[in-house]
Design a protein that fits this description.
heterodimer, A: alpha/beta, FAD/NAD(P)-binding domain, D-Amino Acid Oxidase, Chain A, domain 2, eight-stranded mixed sheet, 30% helix, B: mainly beta, Folate-binding fold, four-stranded antiparallel sheet, 1 helix, 6 strands, globular, binds flavin-adenine dinucleotide, binds zinc ion, SoxD (chain B), Sarcosine oxidase subunit delta (chain B), SoxD_sf (chain B), FAD-dep_OxRdtase (chain A), FMN (chain A)
């Protein structure tokens, strides 16, 4: 008997055909190769940032002797644990240049990767609760518009039109005065972003090596020339670190420190319910944000835990704060049963902006410090980091995010600028 | 809910405490002679150990500053010692 023809491309037609023949013809989405002794570039960390970097190294720079080295499974870090909100409502031009470029890449990513990342541009509304907060909201809207991205100042009525179940009563602890609306923002399927990049990078020859922990760096004459791993030594011309919450561990292995502390950031989902919330809502007052997933679950997140941690589980007090925020925002959600709670280890930088650029060790490069908000930046982070690894030079967009800003004092302080926690 | 042991008050709820930074950092002096590099290291570069760590914490309710030795993965606290001399 002829083996069934395997499907390389995903399409409605291939889905239909496979549906009719018991899904026997799907090809493995990526290979599981053994590591080669040497590559042109190695990226440590198979999260979205690492996988996207590998894809753009191959696509934009024609480099295919590239490996992504992941200690667990791809997407098993923050990429597969995040609440998948994509937006570019930042304050500084440097940030909007990065995040809005990312949002634009997301708009066409599903098609580019031939992978359904379920990007749904349902908008994000950040709700303000006083006249003073409305002024801050107006300032952010103005800044966003000047920086060339879409933003609108919403009135109370407009907020309630978008999310009618919000607490509009007189007893509200955080009354709704209005808010910042970004209509192009939205959510995507987090795993699909990792898997889509992995599959597309693999198709271009990138080796994705899972279950392989980097345990040290090969340093010769002060230069990084490769890594030691649980599967042996692997040499490379350029080594990129994209390990999020574990960046401090990497820096320690390479003999330097970073302006990064690791904290747990947790999230939760409820049981699935009928459609009741078709946008992403964040309250300035509670710090809690939520949206409804395509499955119907209410996805809830908030601020980081207050204790530096690598525990990847999340402490109860913050969970209680986030949930009480949810009840203040949507009193009717008091009836919801929560289904799951989890956490990721996020890499928090004093100015809440990423660190992209050369490390203090030549040959070793950094893509980290995304903290609570690097999922939205995966496509742009991949493009600029690939540029850095391929050329040794900054992309214009990544230059302001160099580690050197902590020496020069040119911080990109989004924690203060846009009050953004995630 | 975790309990931390304040050297002055004894075991109290974790929410009463605030992380004050990594232990053992010494402010470089005299200020006019400190290079931008060293100043930036003092201000921003931090150890971020996965495992045993030594940190400064403050118990908000009584104001006690103390040194806490704990593990950043298991969250087990081994010791808490007051920073004041007596
Ligand atoms: C609960 C939560 C909610 C979030 N919500 C949002 C959101 O709504 N929007 C948003 O934009 N961002 C959000 N984020 C942040 C976002 O998830 C991260 O910034 C982003 O995923 C970082 O991607 P990454 O590829 O750098 O890291 P990761 O996906 O964490 O990948 C790093 C990888 O490195 C691997 N690694 C670590 N050490 C080693 C080693 N020694 N050897 C080999 N591999 C190693 C890890 O296993 C991991 O897979 C959230 C995060 C969390 C935890
Ligand atoms: Zn006390």
């Amino acid at each position: 008997m002829q083996p069934p023809r395997l499907h390389k491309r995903y399409s409605a037609l291939s889905l239909l055909r496979e549906g009719l023949r018991g899904h026997s013809g799907w090809q493995q989405a990526w290979r599981s190769p053994e590591p080669k002794p040497a590559y042109d570039a190695i990226i440590i960390g198979g999260g979205g940032q690492g996988l996207a970097t590998a894809y753009y190294l191959a696509k934009n720079h024609g480099m295919t002797k590239v490996a992504v080295i992941e200690k667990g499974w791809i997407g098993g870090g923050n990429t597969g644990r995040n609440t998948a909100t994509i937006r570019s409502n930042y304050f500084y031009p440097e940030s909007v240049a990065l995040y809005d470029y990312s949002l634009k890449l997301y708009e066409t990513l599903g098609r580019e990767l031939n992978y359904n990342i379920m990007f749904s541009q349902r908008g994000v509304v950040t709700v303000a609760h006083s006249d003073a907060e409305m002024e801050i909201a107006a300032r952010i809207v103005n800044a966003m518009q000047i920086n060339g991205t879409d933003a609108e100042l919403f009135s109370r009525t407009q907020v309630l039109e978008k999310a009618p179940l919000l607490n509009s009563g007189d007893e509200a602890r955080y009354p709704i005065f209005g808010g910042v609306w970004q209509g192009r923002a939205g959510v995507a399927r987090h795993d699909a972003v990792a898997w889509g990049y992995a599959r597309a990078a693999d198709a271009r020859g990138v080796d994705i090596i899972q279950d392989c922990a980097v345990t040290g760096f090969l340093i010769e004459k002060g230069r990084c020339v490769g890594v030691e791993t649980s599967k042996g030594e692997i040499r490379a011309e350029a080594v990129g670190i994209a390990t999020a919450g574990n960046s401090g561990v990497m820096a320690d292995m390479a003999g330097f420190t970073l302006p990064i502390k690791s904290y747990s950031l947790q999230a939760m989902v409820s049981e699935p319910v009928k459609p009741c919330l078709d946008t992403v809502v964040l309250y300035l007052g509670t710090g809690t944000y939520m949206f409804q997933s395509d499955k119907g679950e209410i996805v809830v997140g908030g601020g980081i835990d207050r204790i530096p941690s690598y525990a990847q589980r999340g402490n109860p007090p913050v969970q209680a704060t986030v949930l009480s925020g949810m009840l203040e925002m949507f009193p009717s959600f008091a009836q919801l049963k929560m289904l799951r709670q989890w956490a990721g280890v996020v890499d928090v930088v004093p100015d809440s902006s990423p660190i992209i650029g050369p490390s203090p060790v030549p040959g070793l490069y950094l893509n980290c410090g995304w903290g609570t908000g690097g999922f939205k930046a995966i496509p742009a982070g991949g493009v600029v980091f690939a540029h850095l690894l391929a050329t040794g030079e900054h992309h214009d967009i990544s230059r302001p995010f160099d580690l050197d800003r902590f020496r020069t004092g040119r911080l990109v302080d989004e924690a203060a600028g846009s009050g953004i926690a995630h | 809910m975790q309990l931390f042991s304040c050297p002055f008050c004894g075991p109290r709820d974790e929410t009463e405490f605030t992380f004050g930074g990594e232990a053992g950092k010494i402010r470089p002096e005299p200020a006019p002679e400190v290079s931008a590099e060293d100043w930036s290291k003092y201000l921003h570069r931090v150890g971020n150990p996965r495992g045993a760590t030594s940190e400064i914490w403050v118990h908000q309710t009584c104001g006690e500053y103390f040194l806490m030795e704990r593990d950043t993965v298991s969250h087990v606290v081994s010791t808490t010692n007051a920073l004041r001399k007596s």
